[in-house]
Write a structure and sequence with these properties.
The protein contains one helix and five strands; from the N terminus they run E-E-E-E-E-H. By secondary structure, the protein is of the alpha+beta class. It has a single domain, classed as Roll (SH3 type barrels). The strands form two sheets. The chain has a three-stranded antiparallel sheet, with no helix packed on it. A two-stranded antiparallel ribbon has the order 1-5.
Length: 73
């Protein structure tokens, strides 16, 4: 496939007020970013740039946000 499903990370001051579970907040390079799960979309792979940070240690929160979006839990 030449597309990837992504969830944008928005600077906290430019994001909607984070909803519990749906919008985890990440600290990246000293700044806070909101995972805007409700804005998830497919994008062409060529649009993706270099990896900035690995958030694998937050996998449970990320999965919970996706569950919240798709199943309301």
């Amino acid at each position: 496939l030449n597309t990837r499903v992504v969830v944008p990370l928005l600077p906290i001051d430019q994001a909607p007020t984070p909803a519990q579970t749906l919008n985890p907040v990440f600290n990246i390079a000293g700044s806070r970013f909101v995972m805007a799960t409700q804005f998830m979309a497919a994008v062409p792979s060529k649009m993706l740039k270099d990896q900035v940070q690995n958030v694998q240690d937050r996998a449970f929160e990320i999965a919970s946000a996706l569950d919240c979006l798709f199943q309301g839990v």
